[in-house]
Fold this sequence. Notes:
This protein is an alpha/beta fold. It is built from 26 helices and 16 strands. Iron/sulfur cluster (SF4) binds next to loops.
Amino acid sequence: MYDPIAIKKVAEKRALDRTSQMMIEKTIEDGVETAWDRLQAQQPQCGFGQLGLCCNNCSMGPCRIDPFGGTPTRGVCGATADTIVARNLLDDLAVGAASHSDHGREVVETLLHTAEGKAQGYQITDAVKLHLIAEEYGIPTEGRDDAAIAGDLARGMLEEFGSIKNRIQLVDRAPEKTRKVWQDLNITPRGVDREVVEAMHRVHMGVDADYLNILLHAMRTSLSDGWGGSMMATDCSDILFGTPTPVTSLANLGTLSRDKVNIVLHGHNPVLSEMILKAVEEPAAKEAARAKGAAGINLVGMCCTGNEVLMRHGIPIAGTILDQELAIATGAVEVMVIDYQCIFPSITATASCYHTKVVATSEKSKVPGSIYKEFRPETALDTAREIVGMAIENFAARDPNRVRIPDRPVQMMAGFSEEAIRKALGGTYKPLIDAIVAGTIKGVVGVVGCNNPKIKQDSGHIALGRELIRRNILVVETGCAAIASGKAGLLVPEAADLAGDGLKAVCKALGIPPVLHMGSCVDCSRILVMASHVADELGVGIGDLPLGGAAPEWYSQKAIAIGTYFVSSGVYTVLGIPPKIFGSQNVLSLLASQLTGVVNASFAVEPDPVKAADLLEAEIDRKRQALGI
Ligand code: XCC
Ligand code: SF4
């Protein structure tokens, strides 16, 4: 009925990784719809929308502007292309910043509940980091117990969400010169929630119509994410669950087990996944699994919550956003636990083709067809145990005839927190700076972000990563980009053989991979902290450093926020997927060139990974020259 060669060709077009390809083949054979099929069904996608020229903000609309200079040139309210494009961008960015920051809030709240003794199963794991951050906040630590300090810190951070203080403490981590740039532009973020709310206000009909003013606020909102909500998420997760240190693990869909109960953790917030991990490790759970004929329980991660438990505990990572349907198509997933963000609303339809149960856990992220188990800090461990029990129970429903799990997970290394990198270098960034000055390492590029079915899965990340390390540029990664590199075998020390001679020598000496996994997407804040330390040691701003950023396969509004706080912080950033701004020449030229004169960084759009590497290398050379190295 199916032509296996034709199916194989389709799979090879859709994904780079062999295990993903194998499961794409199975989805086609099983008649299971995936994001790739749905993308096809959407063709042709709306040209106005792609250019950012469609406005659906109010009920005088929807309106659209003629992109070829014809009419209409204005929406019903009179908004021009510039206004509409800038406003849409701010809208998207605010959604992304809100997602990171609301996740951050939940971690801070869990820290507060833990401090107050109200959180079941949580504890303070990294007291050293707690004390260091408390000191940044001016909270006394001498002679006080950790719970009291953690309570004060959590309350101090929560205050910065709404904030009558009009400042975010962690912004002070940025080098002075960088902060001065923000002050001069009046884009220093005043509060985590405040900037998002103001963004929503400005987007309303009849508020901000000046594209430049809108974009400046977009920059401020992005900074409230990167140096606010995301940074708090990272730091408080480290305090609660431990600051990552280098760890080895496995990646790809082959991490699913034939004979064990498989539980997939999908979403973003470690507050949930850490408890599932605890529940899985309890002897009673293991016994229950064996009693049901399973060889044990196999916990694997997916997307960023997978990155969180990978970084801290070495839990294997099954894949990226585009692997979520493929994991279920193995027929071997008993339960997929979801919290929020990047979960396809169709995931329950996919699950209904097999025995898989989808368990939703967040009050703000329910999916029709899923089982809802509300997760609260007060009863977290009990809920986790219940979910694990459900997975064990469901093992009997697995149909062995429909199971197909690809072979051979790939070895990988993760756990490169900023602290871990600094420690690997001997406690200071001096060796890295020396290597950069000497030219053995040319610079550093953060490759981050998602998969997007518009690009062959992982191909953009891998081609760019390989190209950069070949040019002696150290690559640091987060999110699905890092997972892609794990699947492709770039996250092992042996991958240093693919690097240029200089980078290769440094990696070999330190025993590290040429591509470093720094965590989940909120952990892009780790990259900011690392850049700040290096800039401080040199007495310059982040914008002066030979750094770059890239999001070769991004799809999410969160990626817009990340890219914008990178650029606003002084990091030139190349996007592999064009943002919806090409309907306005003014917005385009501001973001792609004029910004350089202000923050010494800008955006570029380049889908070709080799050309993207050229752009990043040229930028690194420009900054090296300015530093006189
Ligand atoms: Fe989502 Fe964070 Fe993007 Fe992956 S990289 S697709 S945002 S899971 Ni964060
Ligand atoms: Fe149309 Fe203006 Fe309303 Fe947008 S805000 S839908 S451009 S009338």
